[in-house]
Structure formats: C-alpha cells, structure tokens
Design goal:
Layout (H helix, E strand, L loop, with lengths): L2 H16 L3 E3 L11 E3 L1 H20 L4 E3 L9 H5 L2 H4 L1 E6 L6 E3 H14 L3 H16 L3 H10 L16 E4 L3 E3 L12 E3 L5 H5 L2 H7 L6 E10 L14 E11 L4 H17 L8 E5 L9 E9 L2 E12 L1 H10 L5 E6 L6 E5 L2 E8 H12 E7 L5 E7 L10 E5 L6 H12 L5 E3 L5 H11 L3 E5 L1 H6 L1 E6 L5 E5 L3 H8 L2
Helix pairs in contact: 2-12, 5-6, 6-7
Bound molecules: glycyl-adenosine-5'-phosphate.
C-alpha cells in the first residue's frame, strides 16, 4: 500500500471510531483481535445495507424468499458440507519471530512489492505460480516458491520458515451440560457460512412457500472463522455477517444463471451510485471444495482491489451430500415438459448458483467510497476544509437533519412539527445547539444527505433552506415539500 493510501485508510479507521461507526470489541480490555462493535451510526448504516440487500433479493425478485436459520447446526452438517475436512488455509510460521502467515497472503504481499517496484512481469509470474501450486495443494512447491523468491518475514527479516501445514478455520464449542468422556460427542461448530442453513431447509422452504424452480432462498446472519491472520480493520474478521442467496436451478441451466447473477450482482453495486471503474471480476483458479465455477466481485479499497462478494456455481454438491449423510431424499419434482423427450423433467437434485457478500466488507466498501477530505474554495479567495461521507442516501444512517436557526421565537416548534411529520418515514436528526456551519459539518461527517434550516422567514412564508451534502448548495423550498423530496431520494 502506498503511503497516501495507507494514510487514507488510517483516516477512515479513525473517522469510523470518532463518529460512532465502528469500535474495537471490548475496548476497555484492550480489544479482541479481529472482532468489532458497531456504534450508533455504524449499526444504522449496517442495518440499512442489510435491508437494501434484502429488499433487492426478496422484494424485487418474486421467486426469492428469505429464511433465518440458527447459527448452531447439527455437527453432521459440516461433515456433509466438506467443511470439517476441507475448510482450511495453508499457514507457515517464521521460526525467528514466531509470526504466523497465511501462505497466499505472504506471497501476495511480496507480489505487491514487486509491482510497486515496477516489476509487473515478476508480480504476474509469482501470482500465476502461486495459483497453480495452491490449486494442486502442492505445499512443498509453495515453500520452494517462497524460498526461491527470497520472501522474508516482515518482523524478523529472515527466511527461516517452518513447513507449510493446513489449519481448519471453524470454531468449535461444546453443546449442552451433559459430560461425556469423548469431547467429540458434544462438539458443535459456529457456522463458517450461512449457506448450509439454506441447504438443509431446502425442502421445508420449497414446500411451504410452494416455490417452483428456478427459485432462490436468501439469508443474512453471523458467520465465524478463526482466520489465521485477521487484518485490515473490518475487512477480515473472526466474527462477521454474510448476506447469501442460493438460487436453485434445473441441471444444465447453471451456466446461464451463473452469468445472470454475476451481472445482476455487479449492477446492484453500481446502482448505488458507486463508479463501475472501482470494480472488477476475478475468476477463481483455485476453487473452493464445493465450487465448479466461481468468481469474485472485487472493489478497489485503499489497500488495493480485494474481494467483496463471491458468485459460485456449486452444482448439486451440497444437496447431494446432505442427502447422503442424512439418508433423506432431497429432490424436486419438475413437471415442466422437456421438449426433447416430450415428458416432464421429473425428479432431480437441483443445481445451485450462490451469491455471497460480506456485510461488514460492504460496510467498509461504502466508507472507502464515501470518505473525502475536501478543500473548499471560498468566494473571498480563502479556503476551508471539511470531511464528508458521500454515503448513498438510501443507506445513509440519517436521511435528514432538522436544524432551527435559534432556540427561540417559535422556530423549534416549527422544526418539531417537521420532525413529527417525517420521522415515521425515515431517520431524522434534530439539533438546536451551535452555529449552523458547525452543525452542517457534523452532519457531513456522518453522511447525512439533507439538512434543513428553519429561520425567521419560515414563519412568514412557510419556506425553509435545504442544504445538499455533496454539492453544499442551498435553496429555499416550501416546508411542505421536504418529506416528499427526501422520500424521492431514498427510494
Ligand atoms: N458461502 C460461500 C462463502 O462463504 P466466501 O467467499 O468464503 O464464500 C463470502 O465468503 C463473502 O463473505 C466474501 O466475499 C466476504 O465478503 C465475506 N467474508 C468471508 N470471510 C470473511 C471474514 N473473515 N471477514 C469478513 N468478511 C468475510
């Protein structure tokens, strides 16, 4: 990361704390690594992102319904899904510093250094070799690659490495109060993805909501991963939230739906008003154990292009595995007519295309997109500055700030009336204290798209001043138009 990007990133992290978006977890005890709490504006923003995603999936798609499954699941779920055997990352330790690295992160950091030094070809070759070795699970080859490239530990500066080994990322805990000689008997996992809650409920949902293929099941909720190295603030956490949708399709049509969801999901991002130039697709070379085809939607964070969402063609892997382990039939009867045979498609295990986005990662994306330290040139030739969050209005924590110019002369009463009119429809903020400029700056810093000021003229002609966050333009409009103007901007 260049020093400017590093500074921007640090400024975003500090801003998030100072303005009540994100706090380190249990901070009075010095925090807990890679676990964070969301403050007043953060929890509001997070909820708005979740609601916006939920609406786009379950309200705007008539063939997608939602569920809310438990975090704890029967332990066999994770045996069947392959997570017990395969959900691991290769790690390596530096013997001198004892610092632990995820192998792909260690190599990627070196590739980034090569790129910064202008060696684009070296970067390309290194990443290509790494992808191939990871795909083949060739740990000897990966260690050789680290040694050949003279990759050293950032703390000790040495290349004194252990062998590479696998590390399972699932957290386990004990269930119930019954003691057992074998701790495995009571072992349950904290789910590492929400998707399995959808798969095991496939028949419950299909039957009760009378869904016909193709259809989707959406879910948001917490997931837990014991990440080897958690870093970059809320980008990689040990407790985080996912927004996932499994789309069940007829075998043979998965290619079409994979393309469909790849495009639909990118459009969801750019429809928020975030520039398409900040996004790119990254096709996976090393596929997760369940995937047949997969890509990431990457966003250009201050620390470079990184994954924010995954689109995965999961075939019939998960439902077939659950069928096998539960010994229950998990199939769908398709009574549509197959034109080639003239008969109904009949019984089959549906194929699945999954869209999976991290809510916390999307939150960081929104902050990265929104944060600006702006210099304002004034008419008298002097300049001023402000920190503003250009959060898309539909997800902004507060939509409208209502600010009476003074605390007297009946202005607060008019402002309170406007509050009462608007607050059932969207989140409003009321403030009387401090100079108006100061109040505007505070709203800029938390991303409130609209501020209205009630002044003495309001009493005479029922007009107010509305100030637009991004342009800072101000205009006088009728008091009676405020609610509809804000509503139109947040649809
Ligand atoms: N069900 C598929 C699945 O879980 P994934 O690519 O492992 O796929 C999906 O995760 C998304 O979840 C990622 O694109 C990312 O946004 C988010 N995510 C994964 N691990 C995370 C972590 N440790 N912290 C924050 N978000 C994470």
């Amino acid at each position: 990361m260049s020093s400017t990007s590093e500074n921007t990133f640090q400024a975003i992290v500090s801003h998030a704390k100072e303005y009540g978006f994100v706090f380190p977890s249990s901070e009075i005890y010095d925090g807990l690594s890679a676990v964070y709490d969301y403050g007043p504006y953060g929890s509001e923003l997070k909820k708005n992102i979740r609601d916006h995603w939920w609406k786009s999936m379950t309200q705007l798609h008539e063939n997608i319904v939602g569920i809310d499954a438990a975090i704890f699941m029967h332990p066999t779920t994770w045996k069947a899904s392959g997570h017990v055997d395969n959900f691991s990352d290769p790690l390596i330790d530096n013997k001198d510093s004892k610092k632990r690295y995820r192998v792909d992160h260690l190599i990627e950091a070196h590739a980034e250094k090569l790129a910064l030094a202008g060696d684009k070809e070296g970067e390309f070759d290194l990443l290509k070799n790494m992808d191939e070795l990871l795909k083949a699970d060739d740990f000897v080859g990966l260690k050789q690659l680290i040694e050949d490239n003279k990759i050293v530990c950032s703390v000790s500066g040495t290349g004194n490495w252990t062998e590479i080994r696998q590390f399972n990322l699932m957290f386990a805990t004990e269930f119930g109060a019954i003691a057992s000689d074998n701790p495995e008997d009571n072992k349950v996992y904290l789910r590492p993805e929400t998707a399995q809650g959808i798969f095991v409920n496939f028949l419950n949902v299909q039957k009760t909501a009378r869904m016909k293929i193709p259809f989707g099941i959406a879910q948001t909720g917490k997931a837990f991963r014991n990440e080897i190295v958690a870093r970059q603030f809320i980008f990689r956490m040990r407790e985080f939230e996912q927004m996932e949708m499994q789309f069940f399709v007829r075998p043979g049509t998965q290619g079409h739906w994979y393309q469909y969801w790849k495009e639909a999901r990118l459009k969801w991002h750019t429809d928020l008003g975030i520039s398409a130039a900040k996004y790119r697709y990254h096709d996976h070379v090393k596929l997760a154990h369940y995937a047949k085809e997969a890509c990431d939607i990457e966003f250009e964070f201050p620390f470079g292009f990184k994954e924010v969402e995954g689109i995965h063609s999961r075939s019939d892997f998960d439902l077939t595995q659950h069928q096998l382990y539960s010994k229950k039939k998990i199939q769908y009867y398709d009574n549509d007519i197959d034109e080639t045979t003239g008969k109904a498609f009949g019984n089959y295990v549906p194929y699945v295309v999954e869209t999976s986005i991290g809510l916390d990662r999307m939150f960081l994306l929104v902050l990265s997109h929104a944060y600006e330290e702006e210099t304002i040139q004034k008419e008298d030739g002097t300049s001023d500055s402000r920190v503003v969050l250009h959060i898309p209005p539909v997800i902004a924590p507060n939509k409208l700030a209502i600010l009476p110019l003074t605390k007297k002369d009946g202005l607060p009463e008019i402002a309170r009336e406007l509050m009462d009119e608007c607050k059932p429809y969207f989140k409003c903020f009321y403030e009387e204290k401090d100079a108006i400029g100061k109040r505007y700056r505070r709203q800029d810093a938390i991303g409130t798209p609209f501020c209205v000021t009630i002044d003495h003229q309001t009493k005479e002609d029922q007009t107010i001043t509305i100030r637009y966050r991004d342009s800072m333009l101000q205009e006088r409009i009728s008091l009676s138009m405020v609610k509809s103007l804000v509503l139109a901007a947040i649809q």
